[in-house]
DNA sequence: TATGAATGAGGCTTCATTCAT
DNA sequence: AATGAATGAAGCCTCATTCAT
């Protein structure tokens, strides 16, 4: 009581950092990292630019923090994968889990897909690439023939593509995700059985 | 003689416009459109910024001109596709030709893949998207089931991915391209035969 | 006990003001007043910037307080000088005492020597300049010829220079101080005896 | 004629670089390097900040260029000194020439004297210090006793001090310069004859 | 006695663009 | 066909300072 008058100001206390991340990710994904200015982010939050600098030392630190927070599930997934036998079942399950992880960090992945040039120059670029190669190494058997290898890479890429390119196809989102998953699993399975 | 002394100056005559495009595309692909300044382009060419403005009215015009010049083969491909019957053979041939077209305009596609956010805001963004949807409409049968549709989209995307993601896999480039093509054709074929 | 565990925290009690002055003077002398930020001072003390404002109303107040604390011996010296007869003995003794006073406030003088432009704009600038002129008026006889006057000014300046410029000459510091003092006394003595 | 209407605009063509240097040195000397903003310099010249950047890549480059341009006479002086025998006559002549060189670059030296902290951090700091040590090595005999060495250093410093500290003593500037020179020469001479 | 959060002003720098020559 | 000089807008970042707690 006496406190409940203004909900919007209430929520503002103590979670500014989080709010900055949210708005930043939204704008980065929509317009690109370079085209999004700190002024813009600050204005949307009704705060001064200087306030951003209280919470993050640089513009880059904002996006790095997003990476660190949002890619954790994928890191864990890769670690899980590394400890499993490289069997077909593992690969299928990995694809299944990856599909779910992607859905959870959709805005970040949209950002990454659309700003690869930027990401590459960022300090996270390298670390992320390594992670993806880790993923590939679990799913791709380096002794298999080339076509099988391509199938596996394609499976991963199909999941990515599924998030964005498929947007224009009209269908229930959940149904679409399942269709995409199905195709990816087929690709992995075919790769396993020999071309 | 008196003219023959300096070969490099010779070649420079009259093709500055072309040289600007070459350097620009290289830098745009490498660092992104926003991060590449006209100063940088000019310096690489050993020319002043103002010289660029003699050949192009704006920075955007440089990239637009690249699009127009380099996507022509793909436009023609789509037009060809539209006139063919939507048979399996057509689709397979389309995939084959698309693979070749991509290889021809690799730097541009690398640029587009890595700067989607930028491209979307550029005036060519929409027009290009429409073209790609045209491509999709030839290959994807809207009455087929969802999985079949995903397979077709995935085929196209596999070709794209093939150009960049596969770079780290060690194999002869031409062999790789063929393996990628094989997988794409399989996807289209499977889609046609029913999931 | 419960209090005795951490010696470093103990010492910190109640003398934060002093610690701020110490760190500030060190940094001001090293990097200059303008280039030294309150953030930097606070970080070195492991305190927040706001804490500085509990002890000092402004950044300027920090340096003003240093002046007031550290130039007291020199003020007293000048007052002493004013009450003595303007004899050669007085002048020699003044130079001797000044040499000792300078050694006691070395960091402050180093700061002043290296940041004259800043000091001039600070509120203490004028007051300090007046003090130095007071010093000069004791030692310089306005009726003497110009060369004699220059000798006296030079004597004072030699003492200053001795603190910094001589650093690179290798010799025992105390011996150096004495050599400097000797030269200064000679200058004053020569001035007194007529050029 | 037809050209002679507006002298101030006329002079502006083609010598902007020089004008920037002039105004910059004046302001740097008056207020210090850090406290002088590029905005201020630009405003005084009735130009935009960006214009400064056409002529100098950074703020630091402005002052570095001033150093390079204005310390040339002193560099030459040192080189001359190095080639002479280290006789008393040489030392006296060096002091005489140095006095003249200082008068020629008075504003720069005023700047340096008053912004030592800044100069030290600048890229020229080290190079300048080395030059001054070169000067010292010509005039100071490392085998002489300490007092003699101090006398020589003091001679140089007296010349510096003469430019600024003596300002308040009322006398004809040229007479003052000569008095200062006289004292410096006396110091060098005494040093040479043994303390 | 101090912190956490924020502000407003201003710093240096870069950019795309223009225009007279 | 190209340069030299300049502009206006905007970018990122840092600073001294404030105030409620």
Could you give the topology of this structure?
Four copies of one chain form a homotetramer.
Chain A: H1 7-12, H2 16-31, H3 38-45, H4 49-55, H5 59-70, H6 72-83, H7 88-104, H8 106-114, H9 116-121, H10 123-139, H11 146-164, H12 173-193
The first copy, chain A, binds a DNA duplex (21 and 21 nucleotides) through helix 4.
Tell me what you see in this structure.
The first copy, chain A, has 12 helices and no strands. The first copy, chain A, has 195 residues and is mainly alpha-helical. Chain A folds into 2 domains: 1-57, Homeodomain-like (Arc Repressor Mutant, subunit A); 65-194, Tetracycline Repressor, domain 2 (Orthogonal Bundle), CATH 1.10.357. In chain A, helix 7 (88-104) packs parallel to helix 11 (146-164). Chains in contact: A-B, C-D. Chain C binds chain D through residues 29-35, 113-118, 120-121, 133, 146-147, 149-151, 153-154, 157-158, 161-162, 165-166, 168-169, 171, 175-176, 179-180, 182-183, 186-187, 190, 195, and chain D through 29-35, 113-118, 120-121, 133, 146-147, 149-151, 153-154, 157-158, 161-162, 165-166, 168-169, 171, 175-176, 179-180, 182-183, 186-187, 190, 195. The first copy, chain A, binds a DNA duplex (21 and 21 nucleotides) through helix 4. Chains A, B, C, D: Residues 14-74 form the HTH tetR-type domain. Chains A, B, C, D: Keywords: DNA-binding.
Question: Main beta sheet of chain A: strand number and arrangement?
Answer: none
- N-to-C series of helices and strands of chain A: HHHHHHHHHHHH
The total of helices of chain A stands at 12
Give the amount of beta strand of chain A, in percent. Answer: under 5%
What distance lies between the first and last C-alpha atoms of chain A, to the nearest angstrom?
A: 69 Å
Largest interface, by Cβ-Cβ below 8 angstroms: which chains and how many residues each?
C-D, 42 and 42 residues
What percentage of residues of chain A falls in helices of 4 or more residues?
A: over 70%
Low-confidence stretches of chain A: 1-12
In CATH, the topology of the largest domain in chain A is named Tetracycline Repressor, domain 2
**Structural class of chain A, please?**
mainly alpha
């Amino acid at each position: 009581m006496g406190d409940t008058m203004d909900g919007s100001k209430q929520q503002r206390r103590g979670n500014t950092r989080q709010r900055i991340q949210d708005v930043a990710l939204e704008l980065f994904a929509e317009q690109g990292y370079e085209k999004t200015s700190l002024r813009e982010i600050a204005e949307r939050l009704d705060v001064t630019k200087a306030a951003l600098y209280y919470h993050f030392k640089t513009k880059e630190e904002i996006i790095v923090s997003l990476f660190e927070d949002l890619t954790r599930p994928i890191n864990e997934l890769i670690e899980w994968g590394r400890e499993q036998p490289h069997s077909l079942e593992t690969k299928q399950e990995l694809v299944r889990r990856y599909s779910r992880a992607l859905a959870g960090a959709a805005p970040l992945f949209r950002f990454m897909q659309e700003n690869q040039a930027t990401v590459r120059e960022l300090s996270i670029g390298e670390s992320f690439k390594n992670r993806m190669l880790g993923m590939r190494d679990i799913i791709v058997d380096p002794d298999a023939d080339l076509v099988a290898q391509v199938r596996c890479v394609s499976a991963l890429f199909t999941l990515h593509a599924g998030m964005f390119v498929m947007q224009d196809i009209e269908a229930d989102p959940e149904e679409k995700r399942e269709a995409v998953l199905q195709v990816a699993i087929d690709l992995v399975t075919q790769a396993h059985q020999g071309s």
